[in-house]
Specification:
Number of helices: 5
Mean pLDDT: 86
Number of domains: 1
Order of helices and strands: HHHHH
Structural class: mainly alpha
Helix content: over 70%
Distance between the termini: 31 Å
Length: about 160
């Protein structure tokens, strides 16, 4: 997998990001249908909107992937952190709604009875998923800053006109 524009692998990575993004978007729409039936509907609503937003994030990332300039290893890390982090965050939010946890998301209404194991599972999922997406975004921002390679390509393109 490479992140350099113009290479076939970069287009394949972008397509996979778009696929995961659209799949998350569909899952988010389906989560919206079951919101009234989960133990904590307020967190269920957050799972619905959070999943839609994570899907949109991955589609947006697919759209800009051609301009991301990272080493092969860093690009692979950014890809997997974004994809896995998005899925884990969404699953943890949905689990919070279904299990009725409230410890890690107290603003979402009154406390609901949930086992300590459920609380720990949701807290771990939200923390790890959120951290993974945050690191992925930071890597992509660094990759979008450009660099010598990007400047040379831009200069060459402007002199060829």
């Amino acid at each position: 997998m490479t992140s350099h524009a113009g290479r076939r692998d970069g287009a394949q990575v972008a397509r996979r990001l778009a696929f995961h993004g659209m799949l998350l978007f569909v899952v988010g729409l389906l989560v919206g249908i079951v919101v009234p039936y989960v133990a904590n509907p307020r967190i269920g609503l957050s799972a619905h909107t959070g999943t839609l937003l994570n899907g949109a994030f991955l589609v947006a990332l697919a759209a800009v992937w051609q301009w991301v300039r990272l080493t092969e290893r860093t690009a692979v890390a950014a890809y997997w952190l974004a994809v896995v982090g998005s899925w884990v965050s969404c699953l943890a939010l949905f689990a919070a709604g279904v299990l009725g946890t409230s410890e890690s998301l107290p603003i979402h209404g009154a406390a609901h009875p949930a086992s300590p194991a459920a609380e720990h599972l949701v807290t771990a999922g939200l923390s790890l998923g959120g951290l993974a997406v945050l690191v992925a975004v930071a890597l992509v921002v660094v990759g979008l800053r450009g660099g010598e390679r990007t400047l040379n390509v831009t200069r060459r393109a402007s002199t060829e006109r």
